[in-house]
# Entry
Amino acid sequence: MALRQQQELKQTQRLSPLQMQVIKLVELNTLEVEDRIKQEVEDNPALETLDADMSNDTENEEKEIDDDNLSQEDIILGDYFSEDDIPDYHINQTHQKSEPSFFEISYYDDKSLSDSLMEQIGLMNLDERKQTIAEYIIGNLDESGYLQRDLQSISDDLLFQQQMEVLPLQLEDMLYEIQELDPAGVGARDLQECLLLQLERYDQTAAVRLAKDILTDYFEEFSRKHYDKIIRMMNITQDNLRDAIGEITSLNPKPGNALGGTMQTAMNNITPDFIVDTYNGLVTIQLNNSNIPSLKVNRSFSEMLKGYNDNRESMSADDKQSMLFMKQKVDSARWFIDAVRQRQNTLQRTMEAIVNIQYEFFLTEDESQLKPMILKDVAERTGFDISTISRVSNSKYVQTNTGVYPLKYFFSEAMQTSEGEDISSREVKMILKESIENENPTKPLTDDQLTRILNKKGYVIARRTVAKYREQLYIPVSRLRKKI
# Structure
């Protein structure tokens, strides 16, 4: 087949560097943006921060430097997210608080599980070989404190990575020593072993001994709550079983969660991205930008680049390389500055749309006042794509007068009452949860019974929807909720 040339016209969609920067920044929360800015300032010598009190003085100078070299694309994209798009009343209201106050919520101890175990291992006076083995086992524990890998795989890893030949039985001996450390239950290979390890540290009362027997011999029946079968096979009374279950339910199925791991430490404090304040029937919105520095292009870089441009014809090859380097850095700095500005405006407009839809909730903070709202509703109000709203709502938090909520909290499906009124599915879930909390624990409500209760209250809902909402609330089926 002969070779031939031909022309082809093709239309493709491509993202500019600025658009790619915006997409990446919109996904980040406040703390991640702070880290991203610090990293960009370190990597790009053409980008620098300025103090907040100097921002007004330098803004005009920066614009004079930038406007001469901005491309048409930069100007268009920069104007798309102008301050004019933000309603005046929102801008004017933010002056009521000169310094936004927000609080952080701690969930975990600052010390990680791995650090705590390493400290305890250091007090055991192990030789170098055993110390290495212990550290390697600890490094294989998951965030809940479990050892999910089999000992043979760990033995193989030690041989290939540390050139240490350690038999699985030797690893098991060291694992037993780790299981003696705190918190109780750490180093277990499954839930059954974790619970038994904790019971070993209890006073060996009759109830504790019975609980150990149940977990050892009838763990399958216990996990499925086949209590009648356990009573019959163990020849015990219902009171005996109740006491044993009380001991078991007091245990921690995830001992590692008592301390912070790598991810827990990162999530140790929740810093809100938005601050919504309610005062005298007025709702105000503010971005939590207190720690996000103002950015500008380095003036020296811009002036040097302008000087190179003026003398381009007489430049040597090395000078041209220098000019190309500086131009890339200056362009990158401008794109990043514009991306940060666009991120702030995108977040502001999205939060305004959410507050406008859920205005009654923010006034009262009554969960029953939440209206049905999906990503499409916010996208239509803001003019953004649904994917942009999804990125904004992911891993962002809102501080109100009474608490901190994840942004996704305000999104819910629409349900209809028998009168045709649209309500939030969250209202149905709240009634569902209250019904289950008030049920008879010896005869828990089935999904069919819950469906009939909701139907009597005027909610048009099917059984499969009730089951879906129950699962979303992390409530088990009726058989697993049964108590004796």
